[in-house]
Write a structure and sequence with these properties.
heterodimer; A: 233 residues; alpha/beta; Rossmann fold; 4-stranded antiparallel sheet; 7 helices; globular; B: 409 residues; alpha+beta; 2 domains; 6-stranded mixed beta barrel; two-stranded antiparallel ribbon; 56% helix; elongated
């Protein structure tokens, strides 16, 4: 599904440069649910952004589903992001003047899908996250948990191969967090590959594998016994 | 290709971000409104100038004669200079190529009567060309022609006021009017938009006037129009050379200012030209300034809009928007807003001019109006400026890495 080899990334800070990723090797199989952990500054978000083609590596190889991701034009990156990846952000990143349904339908718009089909599909996904009744509501009329559900529905809409979540529960209270995690686990049960950045142990333990980063290198990569989130809900 | 979805996206964005759309639209509306009103007022001022100048051919030169004030060539001062018919031939011979129309003129005052109605009027004995010099418009009948001059026919052309005064419900054409005891056949009625005084005049062939009222070939004054292609400087020089040759002909000293006087409209034309020119410059500066203010305004707003939408751009890019679609969404939105706003400004501006225009006449602003092409041009300029001002930041924004855009809070 995903192979990363000797990935390096530095950021220029004034005259000096900050070496954030110092040779990452990572393989993820289809159907896995991986938590990337680490303290802030460990490079976990940078890694996720590179995997998500939101950022570019300085050197190293990255192959996604057999496709080498390197020197992509903006246009090509856009197409790949749309086709292969679904994003879930800590701050939801919904477009505030579009209602829930329109937000979910946006990736489909960029796929060139017809309006009617788009709306049907978006509604289907909203139903799946249990928000069909909120389709016409704007983000500001939704709670944090609901917003994240809309964001998940949007991430799922284009039927991506890989779901990337950057601290998906970071802005939510514990109960809502478990709620969202239960849902993400359910997606994984259905076969979706999921990669998630978090710094919360309990959330990480709800994944099947934990990769720990420190100072830009992988310190530990272990399979864990998944804690089901339903039991807390 | 018409992409309905793209337009839906754009109109949703315009509609849902009303404050932003209205603000940027307002800048353009205001710029075009100011532009329209300023241009309209300036045009109104120009119209007032033009009107003040009247419809007389404004390339006229009138030549009068008087008494000499200086002794010259053995002739003493105080001698009366009298123009005659031959002076017309003399001038036409000499300056024919520079003259458009030429008439000599004899003025008399007469008591006119028709079937008991009486009044006194000015009679002008003229050549047929006089009609063009005065810009008279024939209401009925014909004007004096060369045949009348040759045969000294007793025909007259009367002004509209004369017709109104003396003829009640009778068509004057073909009737005989009695001028100080002599009947003349009326062959035409004319109007003159300079008003009543110019319409209470009776025209007669100059040869007839001369034979009846003096039996001589004396001429009171000569009136000509110069070739309209001459500019005012050339026309002033032309006037001076006429004066000089007449002075030579009549043995008048060069410095004698009284014997031969010449009124050259080019003097006034030149002043009006200078006035209009400076007015035009002022208008251009103001109009240009307004446009630049508008351009700066719309540019600022476009930069601000792109900044404000950076996060949205990041989201869209993460969801698979190509750079091109990002640019087109921002650009088309700006073009639509500027176009609509510019049109509104044009409508409001023209409306204001239309509405308050008539009440401005007392401030020397007559018929303020604008050339639609000009305002549309100004609007297009703003649209293009807005598009360019939006394009650069939009292009930049479309290239930002999504992760940077998303971090932008």
């Amino acid at each position: 599904m995903l192979q990363i080899h000797q990935l390096h990334k530095s950021y220029a800070i004034g005259d000096s440069s900050l070496h954030v990723l110092k040779g990452i090797d990572l393989e993820v199989e289809e159907g896995e649910m991986v938590a990337i952990m680490g303290s802030s500054g460990s490079g976990k978000s940078t890694l996720l952004n590179i995997i998500g083609m939101l950022d570019e590596a300085d050197s190293g190889d990255y192959v996604l589903d057999g496709l080498p991701i390197k020197n992509l034009t903006e246009k090509k990156a856009a197409v790949y992001r749309n086709k292969f990846l679904g994003f879930i952000f800590q701050s939801f990143n919904l477009i505030n003047y579009k209602n829930a349904l329109e937000n979910v339908a946006l990736p489909l718009y960029y796929q060139g899908m017809k309006r009617r089909e788009r709306q049907e599909k978006a509604l289907f996904h909203l139903e799946k996250v249990g928000l069909a009744n909120w389709a016409k509501h704007l983000p500001k009329e939704l709670s944090g948990g609901q917003k994240q559900r809309v964001a998940i529905a949007r991430a799922l809409a284009a039927n991506p191969k890989l779901l990337l979540a950057d601290e998906p529960t970071g802005a939510l209270d514990t109960k809502t967090s478990y709620d969202i995690m239960a849902f993400i686990q359910q997606l994984n049960d259905e076969g979706k590959t999921i990669l998630m950045v978090t710094h919360e142990e309990d959330i990480a333990n709800m994944c099947k594998r934990i990769v720990r980063l420190r100072d830009g290198v992988i310190m530990e990569d272990t399979k864990v016994q998944q804690v089901r989130a339903e039991q807390y809900v | 290709m018409f992409d309905l979805d793209l337009w839906r996206e754009i109109f949703q964005s315009i509609n849902k971000n009303r404050t932003r759309s209205l603000l940027s639209g307002f800048t353009v509306t205001f710029a075009i409104l100011l532009f329209t009103i300023l241009f309209g007022i300036a045009n109104g001022l120009k119209n007032t100038f033009k009107e003040a100048f009247g419809t007389d051919a404004n390339n006229s030169i009138v030549i009068f004669s008087g008494r000499t004030s200086v002794a010259h060539n053995g002739l003493q001062a105080g001698r009366k200079i009298q123009f005659k018919n031959e002076d017309r031939d003399f001038l036409l011979d000499k300056f024919g190529d520079k003259v458009q129309y030429f008439t000599s003129k004899v003025n008399k005052n007469v008591n006119a009567s028709f079937q008991g109605e009486k009044n006194s009027y000015e009679v002008r004995g003229v050549y047929p060309e006089y009609m063009f010099i005065e810009n008279n418009v024939l209401k009925e009948g014909r004007y004096i022609n060369q045949n009348d001059i040759d045969n000294k026919t007793k025909v007259v052309v009367i002004g509209k006021v004369v017709e109104d005064d003396l003829f009640f419900k009778v068509n004057p054409i073909g009737k005989y009017i009695n001028l100080s005891g002599i009947p003349y056949k009326i062959v035409g009625v004319f109007t003159d938009d300079e008003g009543d005084s110019e319409e209470s005049v009776i025209y007669m062939p100059i040869s007839t006037t001369q034979s009846i009222y003096g039996n001589n070939d004396y001429v009171d004054l000569m009136h000509l129009t110069y070739n309209p292609e001459m500019n005012s400087d050339q026309a002033l020089a032309f006037g001076n050379s006429i004066k000089r040759s007449l002075k030579e002909k009549f043995d008048v000293a060069r410095k004698d200012q009284r014997a031969i006087r010449l009124f050259n409209m080019a003097q006034g034309t030149k002043q009006v030209d200078v006035m209009t020119f400076s007015l035009t410059i002022i208008i251009l500066v103001i109009g240009f300034g307004t446009l630049i203010a508008g351009i700066v305004g719309i540019s600022n707003i476009m930069i601000f809009i792109v900044k404000e939408r950076t996060k949205e751009i990041g989201i869209r890019k993460a969801l698979g928007a190509s750079p091109r679609s990002i640019i087109s969404i921002i650009l088309i939105e700006s073009i639509i807003i500027t176009a609509i706003a510019g049109y509104v400004g044009l409508l409001v501006g023209v409306g204001v001019l239309e509405f308050v225009g008539p009440s401005l006449e007392q401030y020397f602003i007559k018929d303020p109006g604008v050339n639609n092409g000009l305002v549309i041009g100004a609007t297009l300029t703003l649209i293009i400026a807005g598009a360019i001002a939006g394009y650069l930041p939009a292009k930049k924004a479309s290239r930002i890495k999504p992760i940077v855009a998303l971090r932008n809070d």
